[in-house]
Amino acid sequence: MKVEFKHIQAAHCENGVATNLLQHAGVHQMTEPLAFGIGAGIFFIHIPYLKISNGPAISFRSMPGTIFKRTCKALDISVERKTFRSKEKAQQFLDECLQNGQPAGCQVGVYYLPYFPVEYRFHFNAHNLVVYGKENDTYLVSDPIMETATTISAADLEKARFTKGALAPNGQIYFPKEHKQVSDEQLKKAIKKGIKHAAWFMAETPVPIIGTNGIKYVAKKIKQWPGEVGERRARTNLAQLVRMQEEIGTGGAGFRFVYAAFLQQAYRYLPNETLLEVSKEFTAIGDMWRNSAVQAAGIYKGRLSGQKEFDTMGNYLLEIAEKEQIAFRELLKIKW
Amino acid sequence: MKKDEIPQDPSPLDKFTKEVCYAVNEKGEYETALSRGWQVKADALGITWEEVQQNIESARQKVKKGEASPVLYYMELNMMDLATLSAYTGFWQWTIKRHLNPHIFKKLSNKRLNKYAEVFNISTDELIRFSPPIKVDASPFR
User: A–B: how many Cβ contacts below 8 A?
Assistant: First the structure.
C-alpha cells in the first residue's frame, strides 16, 4: 500500500514533517518557514550541571513534537498522537494508518537509521520522518533532510522507533486527524500567535537558562571553561556546542535564517514594516552565529588557543544574545 | 547569509544528501538552496569522533590492565554513557557502575551477561573473553 505523498526537503526535520503532513491534510499555504514560525520552533535552553556525552547540555530547539503540535493547534486542526509500550502494537497502528491512506509522522532515534552515514549516527532520539507506504516488509519513508524519499526495512524502523535514552521516542506517531482548508484569516491569527510565543520565550522569560538570557549564561560559562575543566575539555565542549548549533537543520545560524524567511512570508499576510526590518536583523544575527562557529572551529582545531580566544567566543555570544533580545522585543511591541 | 555565500565544502554529508539552506537573493528575499557541507561543521564532527576513538582506546587499555570490566569498553564502543546504557539494559546506573569493576563483573549471573551482550550486539562469550582488535574503528558492528 502506498499513499500519494509529496516529499519536500527541509532544513529542519520537524518543520519538514509538519509542512509535509499539513500540506497533505489540505493546508496548501504551509511552507517550512511558516511551520517553524507558527510552531515557535526557535528556542534556546542550557541546563547547567547536566552532561550530554560528557559535554554541556545545550539545545536550540524545543521538545520534539512541539512545532507540529503548536502549528496544528494555532490552525485549529486536531491531532492524533500516540506512544506505545509494545513494539507490535506500534507497528500495527502504523500499518492501519497506511491502510486508511494516512501518512504518519514518526519520532525516531538516528543511531539505528540505516540510510544515515555512520558519522552522523549518535544516540540522538529526536529525529522526525513521515512513513507514507509499505511494500512487503519495507516502509516508504519521507525523511525531510533527504533530497528524495527513501525506504527502510520494518525491522530497522522498529529499532529506530524504540531507541532508548534521553527523549526516547517510544514509537511516537502523530498526524493531523482531519482534512481541512485553512483560510488566510486563520493563518494571520496563527502567525501572530506564533510570533508572540517565540518572542516572549526568547526575550522575556524570567529564567536565566532559557532564551537570550540562556545564551548570555552560556557565553559567561564559555569564558570560564578553560580554567574550570582544562583547555582540552573546553575545546571538545565547543565542538559539541557547534554541533548542536549548526548540525543538520538544528540550531544557531540555520534557525535564524529560517526565522528571517518566516518573517518575510508573514509580511505577505500581515503587511507590517517591522516584520521586514526584524527579518533583516535576523539575517545579520544569523551571520553572527556563523562567525561565532568559525571562531569556535579555530579553537577546537587548535589554530587559536589561550584564554583570550575563549573570551572572544563568549563575547560573540553575548553580542548575539543582546541583539536577539532587542529583535524579539521589537516583535513583541508590534500593534497588530 | 547571501545565496552565493552558502558553503560548499566536502563533508561526510556528501555520502547521503545535500542540506537545505535558507539564504537571501540579490533582492534580499529568502530562497532555499542546497549545500554540500561546511568545513566548520565537518571539523566539529571530526573532533567529536576523535574523542569517541580516544575513549574507546583508553577503555581498551583499562580492561587489558584489569582496571575495568569489558562492559566499559563495549559501552564506549557503542558511544553510550551510563544513562543510555541504563535505559537499554534496564539496570540502574549505580548497578552498571559496579559492573564496571572487573571483580564484580566476574561474578555476574548469566542472565545479566546475556542482557549486556544483547544490547552490545555481540555474543556473551565475546563479552567475557574480551579480545577486541587492537585498532578499532568505532562501532564496527554496523
Answer: 118
Listed as ranges, residues in chain A with pLDDT below 70 are 248-250
**pLDDT tens, A276-326?**
999 999 999 999 999 999 999 999 988 998 999 999 999 999 999 999 999
Residues B8 and B64 in one domain: no
Mark yes or no for CB contact A9/B44 under 8 Å. no
A257 touches chain B (CB under 8 A): yes
Q: Specify the number of domains making up chain B.
A: 2
Length of chain A equals 336
Sort A287 into a burial class: Cβ within 10 Å, 0-12 / 13-18 / 19+: middle
**Cell digits of residue A107:** 519520532
According to DSSP, the β-strands at A79-82 and A104-108 are unpaired
Whether B40 sits inside 8 A of A293 (CB atoms) is yes
- Is B47 inside any structural domain? no
Contact A239 B44 (CB under 8 A): yes
Residue B63 lies in a domain: yes
pLDDT of residue B134: 61
What CATH number has the domain bearing residue B82? 1.10.260
Domain that holds residue B123: 55-129
Phi, then psi, of B6 in degrees rounded to 5:
-60, 125
Whether A123 sits inside 8 A of B139 (CB atoms) is no
B43 domain-assigned: no
A147–B34: do the CB atoms touch at under 8 Å?
yes
H/E run at residue B22:
strand B19-24
Facing residue for A236 by CB, picked from B40, B47, B88: B47
Domain A13-30+79-176 has CATH 2.130.10.10: no
ipTM: 0.91
Q: Which residues of A touch B6 (CB under 8 A)?
A: none
- pLDDT given at position A53: 72
Determine the straight-line distance between the first and last CA of chain B, rounded to whole angstroms.
37
Set of cell numbers at residue A240: 559539541
Residue B66 and residue B117 share a domain? yes
Residue limits of CATH 3.90.70.10 in chain A: 13-30+79-176
The C-alpha atoms of residue A26 and residue A30 are separated, in whole angstroms, by 9
Examine the domain organization and report whether B23 and B85 are in the same domain.
no
pTM, two decimals, is 0.93
Residues B121 and B82 in one domain: yes
Q: Are residues B83 and B125 in the same domain?
A: yes
The reported pLDDT for the residue numbered A249 is 58
Of the candidates A146, A257, A296, which has its C-beta nearest B1's C-beta?
A: A257
Residue A11 forms contact with B (CB below 8 Å): yes
Reduce the DSSP state of residue A89 to 3 states and report it: helix
Chain A CB within 8 Å of residue B82 CB? no
User: Which of the listed ranges A258-267, B8-17, B128-137 does the model predict with the highest average pLDDT?
Assistant: A258-267
Q: Does A152 touch chain B (CB under 8 A)?
A: no
pLDDT tens-digit profile of B22-31?
Answer: 999 999 999 9
